[in-house]
Amino acid sequence: MTTKPFYKELYFQVLVGIVAGIVLGYFYPEFAVKLKPLGDAFIKLIAMIIGPIIFCTIVTGIAGMKDMQELGKVGGKALIYFFAMSFIALAIGLLWGHLVQPGIGFNIDPATLDTTSLIKYTDGAKSVNLSDFVMNIIPSTFVGAFSSGNVLAILLVSILFGYSLSVIGVKGKPVFDLVESISKVFFHNVHLISKLSSIGAFGAITYTIGAYGLASLIPLAKLVIGFYVLLILFVVVVYGIIAKICGLNLFSYLRFIKEELLIILGTGSSSVVLPHIMEKLEQLGCSKSVIALVVPSGYSFNLNGTNLYMTMAIIFIAQATNVDLSISEQIILLVVAMLTSKGAAGVSGAAFVMLTSTLIVLPVVPVAGMVLLLGIHRFVGTGLAIVNLIGNGIATIAVSVWNESFDREMMKNTLENKEI
């Protein structure tokens, strides 16, 4: 098998784009912020085809199931896994905040904070409740699910369409073949757009450094460093244990998805690699039907990085504003966060809205304290997006193993062929 020169590999090109973006953003910040459209354009290109890819993958995955009871089993197992991991992540973030104590010593009076910059987040957060969340899943029209970009709405119409296609049997075969062919076209589009990954990562990272500057991290360095240490420990320990139970070497898996991780590092969004990760998980031996259900739904229900951030950030604000949370209040915090975190979608900005929503429901910790996080949110958002992606891949593998539909031999061959 012929090996491509390293400079032609996508991961190397993206890495070069990130390094170049950091250098340009640091030395020429005024020019760097003007390059933001490069990152935005790349994200929009990927976002343009995410809906159709989710639809085609779910429809072919469900319609291809031999037993429709499997759909309920896979969905049930996925939800059990999602909620268990969400609770674990929220609890660990809470405990880590107490251990690291990043907010101790700030002694800030919430009344002195300028909250005008929070308006766009608090306005959105006030509308987040269980009723609205459920109603937003149901689109006004079939096409509306795709135009809105709501992953859960697309998931709903895709499941209904795939189930109906399966029920009508042979008569639906031409439609099934058509959807499968369309799926191949969209995945080819993904490969074409992926060639622009280095430019997209360059534009996004140079804007971030140019607009916020590395100096913006200094006052809150303890929180940022503590959060990234937590993310690393969570990936290595928690994901490492789950991967081992599944018969997978965590670090081999991380090497396998290194291109996707670098793209997120540059763009700060896990949504841009959703089509890529679905394709790679199939190469790894996961069942297509499991991938079709777990990955898209995981982008709203399995955001472990977001969960870690939410509880640690709330503890930080409480410590910085000298709010002493009782044990009962912290238990309520975990329950509320379990609900509000399910409204986030895989983009880092959504995590800030969900965090604000939690504080509005739990008024003991002042919402005004969110101002303290505005400067560093973009930087920590990248880390939580990376962990969210890794977590969704591990979740898909775990559910495939649990469902006894994981091809270990295929995994072994794929990872061996991808070793550098």
Automatic annotation (TrEMBL):
<keyword id="KW-0472">Membrane</keyword>
<feature type="transmembrane region" description="Helical">
    <location>
        <begin position="227"/>
        <end position="254"/>
    </location>
</feature>
<feature type="transmembrane region" description="Helical">
    <location>
        <begin position="199"/>
        <end position="221"/>
    </location>
</feature>
<protein>
    <submittedName>
        <fullName>Serine/threonine transporter SstT</fullName>
    </submittedName>
</protein>
<keyword id="KW-0812">Transmembrane</keyword>
<feature type="transmembrane region" description="Helical">
    <location>
        <begin position="382"/>
        <end position="402"/>
    </location>
</feature>
<feature type="transmembrane region" description="Helical">
    <location>
        <begin position="351"/>
        <end position="376"/>
    </location>
</feature>
<dbReference type="Pfam" id="PF00375">
    <property type="entry name" value="SDF"/>
</dbReference>
<keyword id="KW-0769">Symport</keyword>
<feature type="transmembrane region" description="Helical">
    <location>
        <begin position="78"/>
        <end position="99"/>
    </location>
</feature>
<feature type="transmembrane region" description="Helical">
    <location>
        <begin position="308"/>
        <end position="339"/>
    </location>
</feature>
<keyword id="KW-1003">Cell membrane</keyword>
<feature type="transmembrane region" description="Helical">
    <location>
        <begin position="137"/>
        <end position="163"/>
    </location>
</feature>
<dbReference type="GO" id="GO:0015366">
    <property type="term" value="F:malate:proton symporter activity"/>
</dbReference>
<feature type="transmembrane region" description="Helical">
    <location>
        <begin position="12"/>
        <end position="29"/>
    </location>
</feature>
<feature type="transmembrane region" description="Helical">
    <location>
        <begin position="41"/>
        <end position="66"/>
    </location>
</feature>
<dbReference type="GO" id="GO:0070778">
    <property type="term" value="P:L-aspartate transmembrane transport"/>
</dbReference>
<keyword id="KW-1133">Transmembrane helix</keyword>
<dbReference type="InterPro" id="IPR036458">
    <property type="entry name" value="Na:dicarbo_symporter_sf"/>
</dbReference>
<dbReference type="GO" id="GO:0015138">
    <property type="term" value="F:fumarate transmembrane transporter activity"/>
</dbReference>
<dbReference type="GO" id="GO:0015141">
    <property type="term" value="F:succinate transmembrane transporter activity"/>
</dbReference>
<keyword id="KW-0813">Transport</keyword>
<dbReference type="GO" id="GO:0005886">
    <property type="term" value="C:plasma membrane"/>
</dbReference>
<dbReference type="InterPro" id="IPR001991">
    <property type="entry name" value="Na-dicarboxylate_symporter"/>
</dbReference>
